[in-house]
Amino acid sequence: MQDPTALLSSIFGFSGFRPGQAEIVDAVMAGKNTLAIMPTGGGKSLCFQLPALCRDGVTVVISPLIALMRDQVRSLRETGVEAGALTSGNTDEETESVFAALDAGSLKLLYMAPERLASSGTLALLRRINTTLIAVDEAHCVSQWGHDFRPDYLRIGELRRSLGVPLAAFTATADEETRAEIVTRLFDGVQPETFLRGFDRPNIHLAFAVKDTPRTQILRFAAARKGQSGIVYCATRAKTETLGQALREAGHSACHYHGGMEAEDRRRVEIRFQREDGLIVVATIAFGMGIDKPDIRWVAHADLPKSIEGYYQEIGRAGRDGAPAETLTLYGQDDIRLRRSQIDEGVAPPDRKAADHARLNALLGLAEATACRRQVLLGYFGETSEPCGNCDLCDRPADLFDATDAVRKALSAILRTGEWFGAGHLIDILTGTPTPKVKERGHDQLPTYAVGRDLTKPAWGAVFRQMMGRDLVRPDPDRHGALRMTDAARPILRGEENITLRRDTVASAQPRVAIKT
Ligand code: ADP
Ligand code: ZN
Fold first, then answer.
1. Is the complex ipTM higher than 0.90?
2. Pairing relationship of beta strands 230-233 and 204-205 according to DSSP bridges
3. Nearest of 393, 385, 508 to residue 458 by alpha carbon
4. In a 3-state reduction of DSSP, which class is residue 73?
């Protein structure tokens, strides 16, 4: 066997390992079953390519994306490494040269789409060519709960058993369930050597803010960073266009980007962004996949991202050069309500919906964090860390209060009105606001009427938002989004548990600035 460190520079031209790589390479070299969880761009491919070159025999690489396989094979071949791919995108010549190299015993890495495993000849082939290692890229594709499920990934476990060789699995998806499922399906439930490293991006400043005057908030954030390249992510295509326009009117160089645009127009934006300094792209999450610009100085989310993984990936586009970069994520009650209803109204089976709610809860836990935000973020990925000193909550600790009493009053208002109303009406009841709706329904006669006068309406808004975020109450799509209590709230209602919330309503309590929307 060859020494991996020597090949690191002679073949790949790298001066050293990135965080986490050396340990993974050692374990794979030693023939152990391994599961490595690393962020996108963390350098996973090296962790199987290097051992593949040093070990005897052939390494089979299962990967879900043909384009990615072809890229890797091309760059390996450019450095003189014998690698090939068997995919549906091959020309006849390509396939033939792969088989010729296999017959000559010179091929070191054989890339293959999972669909190939369905054909009966594949196992015989892999036996014949002395396969000594299976590497699985994007291993989370084996998870049925994930969004990238590929049924043919389920055949990999069987392949490992019948070849009797070690397997190295790689993924950037970190949540517990997915990890557990990878262990079950790829390793027969026997925990492989597991590596989890390098999720921290210490140069990126993290900050969240409650949506208050969203357009003004984004314009203010951009104005403080004029002339720097940035991305604003929006939930809808229409919003990318209006917000792009608003930024241009405010004197920025800005354009929009979304999946509904002609490929040509999208390409033009990508090229401009890559080449120009100080351009702002206002985009849906369609923007970013192929963007490799090192000096993006900031990323803002005008709407709550889809998941922690999504958030992490999107903010991770900032500050690739290691220099300070800033982020701001806006979120509000409407985001939470919308996301909950989308899950509930979807066609997924009940336990999938429960898993999606749990994922959303994790994201909202990050948004409503009460101490260092990076600790919460890294904790989600399984990493422990010290308070970072580079997030909004390290800069300025959250103003917390014991909200047990307030939450119980809110729950009581919900229950006494039969779980048929939204936050607005409930707040009118709690604050004793005699609106026509309150009087019509006789809600001014309830024992809970006006029991919440100690808090302002915006303060109650924050309480309800955080109750939704902690999943104590949930909008019911069959009742026009009326809030209903969940089981998680029962211990608080019964007085068995206390709850601490943030009193972050200072901004919302200010009179709104007049802006056009
Ligand atoms: P991913 O984890 O997303 O699969 P890649 O394996 O594509 O990431 O690696 C991301 C980038 O990092 C590539 O451009 C690769 O060449 C580079 N890279 C990987 N390892 C090292 C290293 N030890 N030193 C410098 N660059 C590295
Ligand atoms: Zn911090």
1. yes
2. unpaired
3. 508
4. helix
Beta bridge partners of 37: 171, 196
Instruction: Give the ligand at the shortest distance from the Cα of 200.
Output: 2
The two three-digit tokens of residue 376, written as one number: 């919460």
Parallel, antiparallel, or unpaired: how do β-strands 500-502 and 400-402 relate?
antiparallel
CA distances from 289 to 121, 148, 258, 361, 445 (A): 35, 16, 12, 26, 57
Q: Encode 305-314: b = buried (16+ Cβ within 10 Å), e = exposed.
A: bbbbbebbbb
In short, whether 40's Cβ falls inside 6 Å of ligand 1 is yes
Q: What angle do CA 294, 297, 302 make, to 5 degrees?
A: 120
- pLDDT band, very low/low/confident/very high, at 164 (cuts 50, 70, 90): very high
Cross-strand pairs, 482: 476
Rounded to the nearest 10 degrees, how much is the dihedral formed by the CA atoms of 264, 265, 270, 271?
70
Place of tokens 């923007």: 287
Separation of CA 13 and ligand 1 centre (Å): 11
User: Quick one: what percent of the chain has pLDDT higher than 90?
Assistant: 72
**E strands present in 292-441:** 298-301, 325-331, 400-402
First to last CA, the chain: 65
Determine if ligand 1 sits within 6 Å of the CB of residue 41: yes
Looking from the CA of 185 toward its CB, the CA atoms found within 13 Å total: 23
Contact 505, 371 (CB under 8 A): no
